[in-house]
């Protein structure tokens, strides 16, 4: 784990509103998986990867008054018809990483560790955009990072 500042960037992809009360809830996991499965079947990431600046897959968790807006896509400066473009502001982040399991399992473990095991009490989440980053392109045997914006 580390603290790191990240410059602003743009993500091109698609999103879904997942209803809930907080930024992190156990019920989100299944809905995130269903959303990614749909996008995989549509070939979205395969279609977007040629436009990617770093060849990594991203998900954004954006707090919403009705739950979270969950985006999936790639970092790109290119606006592509049929896809949303989101700008993520420069932030200071708390970064954790994990590997050797399915990406959703790893992201859930990292989020649980931060939000349920007390880390958030000493390193305060700032209600900003959380990043889930798939580093190796293999969601079945993943290498991931979770970037949580902090104060």
Automatic annotation (TrEMBL):
In terms of InterPro entries, this protein maps to:
AraC_E-bd, Cass2, Reg_factor_effector_dom_sf
The AraC effector-binding domain covers 1-151
Q: Which domain of life is it from?
A: Bacteria
Specify one Pfam family. Cass2
* Name of the featured protein: AraC effector-binding domain-containing protein
């Amino acid at each position: 784990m580390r603290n790191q500042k990240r410059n602003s960037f743009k993500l091109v992809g698609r999103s879904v509103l997942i209803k809930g009360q907080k930024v992190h809830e156990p019920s989100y996991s299944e809905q995130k998986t269903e959303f990614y499965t749909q996008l995989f079947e549509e070939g979205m990431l395969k279609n977007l990867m040629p436009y990617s600046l770093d060849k990594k897959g991203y998900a954004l968790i954006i707090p919403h008054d009705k739950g979270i807006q969950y985006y999936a896509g790639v970092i790109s400066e290119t606006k592509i018809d049929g896809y949303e473009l989101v700008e993520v502001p420069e932030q200071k982040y708390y970064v954790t990483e994990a590997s050797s399991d399915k990406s959703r399992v790893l992201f859930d473990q990292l989020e649980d560790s931060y939000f349920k095991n007390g880390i958030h009490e000493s390193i305060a989440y700032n209600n900003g955009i959380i990043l889930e980053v798939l580093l190796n392109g293999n969601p079945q045997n993943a290498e991931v990072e979770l970037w949580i914006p902090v104060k």
